[in-house]
Amino acid sequence: MMKLTFLGTGTSCGVPVLGCQCPVCKSKDPRDKRLRTSAMLETAYTRVLIDCGPDFRQQMMPMDFRKIDAILVTHSHYDHVGGVDDVRPYCKLAPVNVYANAKAVKGMKEMLPYCFPQEGKDKYPGVPDLILHTVEPHQAIEIGDIHIEPFEVMHHQLPILGFRVGGLVYITDMKTILDEERDYLNTTPIDTLVINALRFDRPHHSHLLVDDAIAFARSVGARQTFLTHVCHDIGCHEEVNRRLPDDVRLAYDGQTIEWPISCASCE
Predict the structure, then answer these.
(1) Which strands form 146-155's sheet, in the order they lie side by side?
(2) Pair 265, 163: CB distance under 8 Å
(3) Predicted TM-score of the model (pTM)
(4) Quick one: the chain helix, strand, coil %, rounded to 5?
(5) Which residues pair with 134 in a beta bridge?
(6) 8 A C-beta contact, residue 189 and residue 222
(7) Is the pLDDT of residue 264 over 80?
């Protein structure tokens, strides 16, 4: 079986937002507590992290401590890579491969130079043992028994990566997508789409709103859709789900999705 765990489903501020007294931030429903967006793909043999934000340590505390084979980086904004240094304990088990596009590789080197020193320079003692790989859209990545296909979406004017694993498509921080990338996704059926949806109203320059995310899900024929990277303005979890179509749900921290490993995941 393949399993996806939502480690975090919130925006860069998280939910509750510091100092906010809105109904969502004061909610007692644990599904309204949202750490920064990240997810974990797992099989019995392989473990792949999608993004590694500043809440990584907290997100991993309840999970079994075992090897992380790789980190897939959507982009190098702090809320998606700010926890890279906290990967150190896992590097004692084995080096961790990190896959990102060229812009994210450059961004991580600038943000975390002691973790990714310039060629020929020694690493700072004690830093995580990370192996950085630059990948291009549609350049397949094989990690253990997980076959991953990166593709490109736009976060305002920044090209970032989404990832396809068989019938699962994972996207965060998207605002737009080129027609050719949408066509690429439409080449095979999408069973489960994970996509960002900031809130219901007040357009944002670099993020989809709920109606945008639903329209995109319809355009690629997703059987079921989970909304992630949401802010407190979206409303309380239970109320939001009542407003959504039956095939679209609001994801929450700790939620898991499981499906069989099929040939489509391994080709």
Answers:
(1) 141-143, 146-155, 158-165, 168-170, 192-196, 224-228, 248-250
(2) no
(3) 0.95
(4) 25, 30, 50
(5) 100
(6) no
(7) no
